[in-house]
Amino acid sequence: MTIKVGINGFGRMGRLVFRAAWHWPDIEFIHINDPAGDAPMLAHLVNFDSVHGIWSENAQAKDSLICIADKEITVTQNTQISDTDWSVCDLVIEASGKMKTKALLDDYLKQGVKRVVVTAP
């Protein structure tokens, strides 16, 4: 069974999770939200990391999508969880560093997300 994953916050932690899990056969990334960057910028950042080097894949931007091989990942730039449609995700990686309380994370669960993993302390 494939787990559909979304990422909120595509800074250092969001990109590291993305790169590390990209080749896992049971994971499919379907959405990225980051208010600080559009699809071309996020594709560039995932391709070229100052610490981890050049990624083995080639991410390219097309409109508001990141395309890698034959897969397309939608990209949004919303600041509120409720402004993004997370309903198609089974799991959301919350890597923005801002959404840490149960009350804030409830917006994911209200949309039908089964699990949320928070990368902040």
Can you characterise this structure?
The protein is 23% helix and 32% strand. The chain has helices at 12-21, 39-47, 102-110, and strands at residues 3-8, 27-33, 48-49, 53-54, 59-62, 65-68, 71-76, 91-94, 115-118. Strand 3 and strand 4 form a beta hairpin. The longest helix is centred in the N-terminal third of the chain and has 10 residues, at 12-21. The chain is globular.
Entry summary:
By secondary structure, the protein is an alpha/beta fold. The protein has 3 helices and 9 strands. The strands form 2 sheets. A 7-stranded mixed sheet has the order 5-6-7-2-1-8-9, sandwiched between helices. Strands 3-4 form a two-stranded antiparallel ribbon.
- How are the strands ordered across the major sheet? 5-6-7-2-1-8-9
From the helix content, strand content and strand pairing, which structural class follows? Answer: alpha/beta
Tally of DSSP β-strands: 9
| Annotation field: number of helices | 3
In quaternary terms, these chains amount to single chain
Report the portion of residues in β strands: 25-35%
Mean pLDDT level? 95
Quick tags:
single chain; 9 strands; 7-stranded mixed beta sheet; two-stranded antiparallel sheet; 121 residues; alpha/beta; 3 helices
Layout of helices and strands, plus pairs?
Layout (H helix, E strand, L loop, with lengths): L2 E6 L3 H10 L5 E7 L5 H9 E2 L3 E2 L4 E4 L2 E4 L2 E6 L14 E4 L7 H9 L4 E4 L3
Parallel strand pairs: 1-2, 1-8, 2-7, 8-9
Antiparallel strand pairs: 3-4, 5-6, 6-7
